[in-house]
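DM from R.C. (forwarded with permission)

"hey, sorry to bug you on a friday — could you get me a structure for this? deadline for the figure draft is monday and I only need the backbone to look sensible"
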Amino acid sequence: MVDASALAAFILREEGWENLAVHLVYSLSLDHVVKEVANVIWRTAYLRRLISMDEARMAYNLLRKMVGKNVLLEPELDYLDKALEIALSWGITVYDALYLALALEKNLPILSLDDKQRRVAKNLGLMVKP
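My reply, with the result:
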């Protein structure tokens, strides 16, 4: 199960992105991940000016190619009730808690680069990759 932090790092080829590839083959995530990663691409190109607009478009195209092929999506609404409970109990955003709710429901390890989310995942008894 992959969250937006890990998928965005792979798509944008951030440091260590190669190590994420093995975890993204036939992975599962929420439909929400597409919006989050697209927003990271926009922020990286438009606000931070770390990549060109053409590179942003190429990154987005890669994201679109991966969705449904390498990364299968679940509807976020199915996990929102559990996510809100996790967010309220552990003080993390509902966005982050959605991924944890999915991982709990499917009994899957979570691939995340978000330290707070990783800590909560471990406290919930989830395996955290890598």
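R.C.: lifesaver. The chain has one domain: 4-129.
me: no worries. Residues 4-129 form a domain with the Rossmann fold fold (CATH 3.40.50.1010).
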